[in-house]
Structure formats: C-alpha cells, structure tokens
C-alpha cells in the first residue's frame, strides 16, 4: 500500500464511526470468552474490537491508546441522548452512570468507591496531591529523578511557593534492581521527609519501581506516598489494597483504552484528612472523598460513563491476561531488537524490572526521520525521545498488538539500520 492509499484508508477508517450508526461499531458483546491460554487468534478478535485499520501497527500505548468500539459507542449514544434532551431530568441517569464508573474503578484497583476521584488525567491527579498536602519550610519531598513533569516540575514549582524542599534520588541506567531503590529511599529519608513520590513504571525507559515496598517504607516512617500510575493503570493488574499507597494516579486514555480527558486519583482513607481539595465548585461526586474532591463544575458525563465501559472491557478480557500479553510482546520485541547491530538499549530486559515500555537509540540514525519513515512507509506508530537523556525511539506494545506487529517492526528497524533513512 502506498502512502496515499494508506492516508485514504486512515481517513475512511477514522471518519466512519462518526458518520455511521453506532450499531456499526465493534461491540464487546462480540468478544469471545478469554480461553485459559489465549492464542494469537483470540488476541486478533480483541484487535477487532478497535476501529484502527489492520494495516496500522500502533506501538505507542505509553502516550495514547485507542478506545474500543464499545467505549466509542457509549460516548456517542450518551452524548447524542444528552444533546437531544439536555434537561436535568434526562441527565439524572448520567450522574448514576458516573457513580457506576467510580464503583468500577474501585473494583479495578481493589479499593473502595469512597477513595476514588474521577479527574481529567494523571497530570491533574498528581497536581491535586502536590497542591493539596500542607507542606512548609523545613519539610522535604523525596522524588526519583525520572518523573513526568506533572510529578516533578509540579513539586519543584510548589516548593518555590510554599518553601519546602525537593530532593531527587538518582535513577541509574541500566535499572539497578529493586533492592537498590528500597535501600536508596531508606537511606535518603530524614525526619524532615514528609512525602515520597515516584512513577510506578517510567515513561522514559520503562523502569519499574518497587511500589509496594516503597509505600510500606513510607508508612513505617509516617511519610505520605504518592505513586504516579500513568504507565501502570490499565496495563498491570494493579492491586492498591496490596500496594497501599496514600495516593495513586492514572489516565483513562493511556493503557486503559478509555475516552480522552478522564483520569483517576485514589486517595487512601487514612490519608484523606491530610490533604486539602484544590477546586471547589458544583456537581461533586456522591460518595466519600469525591464529595469534596470532585466538585469540578460541569463535566462531560457521557465520557465518564464510557470510562467505566473501558474498565468493563478490560475486566472481561482479564487484567492478568492483558498484563501477561503486553509483557510477552515486550519480551519478543526486546529479543528482536537485540539481534540488530548498533542499537543502544535503555530498557532493562529483565521482566522483574520493566513491563511494556522499550526505549533505545538506533545507532546514528536521526530518530525523527526514522519515526516518520516507520509511520509513512511501514505504518508503524511509535514515539521519539529527543534531548540528552537516553534519546531515541520508544515502543510500547499493548494487548491489541500481535506478534506479527512485533516481527514487522523489528524487521523494519533492522532494514533502516542497514540502509539508513
Ligand atoms: C509517568 C507519567 N505521568 C504523568 C503523565 C501525564 O499523563 P496525562 O497527559 O494523561 O495527564 C504521563 C504521560 O505520558 C506519564 O507518562
């Protein structure tokens, strides 16, 4: 398929759902029950639940995932219903649906609905925490050096305003192992440390952090713990009742494959008296902490309900199976990339240190040109990382990918490494 044909295919595939009746979209009802050992055929039936054309290989889950047909259908149906009759009476059911999503989020994360705030994204969730905890001069926040700006710049900027101190713990490459981080945090904690915050799996190179151990360490010292779950929510079979953080954040539109501009903030019951809400307005949630923390004014409730549909979709497939599949594809990708001369791999091949984010420098190739060629000629979507810190290409496979996607991607990179771009 040439570039023009591919562009046409994307235009048709992308526009069709919004022109055709919602009934034309894939429905999770068509999804077969997950077998005990799902094979490639089963995962292809999962792939069929998305409106992406088969010719497109998306390996950028760490940035933005497609929503399934069931999510699109829910958004479309409820938005149309609301705009057909925007009366308060007709919208009562949307408020009920929003509470159902809260219950589904609680089940998904294995906590209670009273501890769930439905936000717009991880950035908002993280900032609600860094703004909401009462910190003053003399207090210290301990961070890992490798965090998204919403969990790094945010703390640094608030430190300027409120006078507390932020300390970064180095994150060596390659990943030095879980014990290293438990030890590094234990040594860095002082009587001034009030919060520790880190990313469950980093978006840069996919380093996994020992979340349960670090949250336990924080608790033992009377310190609050904040886990940025943007790269674990919807990918890993996260169990917050086991991890026991004080705060955990995530985005619907990443690995959970939900609608855009929805996110989650978990606030542990035991931490709710230690954080202030930052936004006060109308239309909060109905239970627990959402009554004070979720009054953001008018919301897009159809998408909040569709967020719940995304959780139901993943739950139906099986969250442990989804994590296993993404891990298996990632290991196949790492093995394939290892066979290519000239690649500098930033991601640990050890599955106990990473899950499904793979970053590498493709020799001396210009990564922007390589990414453009992969997309335009091979129809593979990836992310690029510029700058000095482990620059290169980032690939993040998810459960809608196949082994054929991985093989095609490895072959294409091998070809460009041999011929240039
Ligand atoms: C680790 C991490 N935290 C936070 C975010 C912000 O997510 P969002 O843009 O959905 O707010 C990202 C986005 O890539 C991320 O990777």
List the helices and strands and how they pair.
Elements: H1 3-19, H2 40-47, E1 57-58, H3 69-84, H4 88-109, E2 116-119, H5 122-132, E3 140-144, H6 153-162, E4 165-169, H7 178-188, E5 193-199, H8 211-220, E6 224-228, H9 240-243, E7 247-251, E8 263-267, H10 290-293, H11 301-317, H12 319-338, E9 343-345, E10 358-362, H13 367-378, E11 380-381, E12 383-385, E13 392-395, H14 403-419
Parallel strand pairs: 1-11, 3-4, 3-5, 5-6, 6-7
Antiparallel strand pairs: 2-8, 7-8, 9-10, 10-13, 12-13
The protein binds pyridoxal-5'-phosphate (PLP).
Pyridoxal-5'-phosphate is lined by residues 121-123, 148, 150-151, 199, 203, 228, 230-231, 251.
Class computed from helices, strands and strand pairing = alpha/beta
End-to-end CA span: 19 Å
* CATH fourth-tier homologous superfamily of the largest domain: Type I PLP-dependent aspartate aminotransferase-like (Major domain)
Low-confidence stretches: 14-21
> Fraction of residues in helices?
40-55%
- Globally, the shape reads globular
CATH-defined architecture of the largest domain: 3-Layer(aba) Sandwich
CATH fold-type name of the largest domain = Aspartate Aminotransferase, domain 2
Name the helix and strand elements from N-terminus to C-terminus, one letter apiece. HHEHHEHEHEHEHEHEEHHHEEHEEEH
User: Approximately how much beta-strand content do the residues carry?
Assistant: 5-15%
Major sheet details = 7 strands, mixed
Mean pLDDT across the residues is 95
Helix tally equals 14
Tally of domains: 2
